[in-house]
Amino acid sequence: MGCGDFHCSRNALIALNTLYILVSIILISVAATAKYAAVVTSTSVIGGIIACGVFLLIVALIGLVGAVKHHQVLLFFYMVILVLLFLIEMFVSIACLVYSESKREDVITYGWEHQASNITKNEVQIQYNCCSLNGTNSPSDPSCSEVERCKHLTESECATKYPCLEQLDDLMHKALRSVGGVGLFFSFTELVGVWLAIRYRNQKDPRANPSAFL
């Protein structure tokens, strides 16, 4: 049988939606890692990627059910939602890739000063072997006594020599670049999903009653 027949279209759509499920899990996990690494809970770009990942997961499940059952209504809504998701995911992914260094530093600084608890700050300092954020040991920051590098230095010396901002910025930059790259690449595969759904929706199921088609 040729690749344009009913069964080939259905199998291709099922395989593509399975891929979407895997991609959505990758987007959610990587973006969540970036969110934690930045010690931030309100980064709109990262939150947008997580939302796209969750939405893509839901849409993929709709597409799987529609493909297995050849459900006309589900396939129609699947196509419409996939187009909208493509536009949102593409713009959010581009925003991730063009996030400037100064903007990243502003986001990290705001999260450190206004949102992160001392417990979180202490965990970051121990995990990344750094002290304070930007070289100044603020009274609101936790002690660096548990940091390996700081055991033979004073608090101010360690904060000046091993600030956390550079490492957190590097982590956030890598995470945003990974999320943006994955999101941008796979956003274009959603157009393939729309094309497959249109073709599959207008094909006759050889097992069904021909008079019941459309």
Can you tag this structure with a few keywords?
214 residues, mainly alpha, 7 helices
Q: Could you tell me the number of beta strands? A: 0
Strand content: under 5%
Mean pLDDT: 79
Distance, first to last CA: 24 Å
| Computed Rg | 24 Å
Shape field: elongated
Q: In terms of per-residue confidence, which ranges show pLDDT below 50 for 5 or more consecutive residues?
A: none
Annotation field: number of helices = 7
Structural class per helix/strand content? mainly alpha
Order of helices and strands: HHHHHHH
What proportion of the residues is helical, as a percent range? Answer: over 70%
Describe this structure in words.
- This protein is mainly α.
- It has helices at residues 6-37, 44-69, 72-97, 101-114, 118-128, 155-161, 165-201.
- The protein is elongated.
- The two termini are 24 Å apart.
- The mean pLDDT is 79.
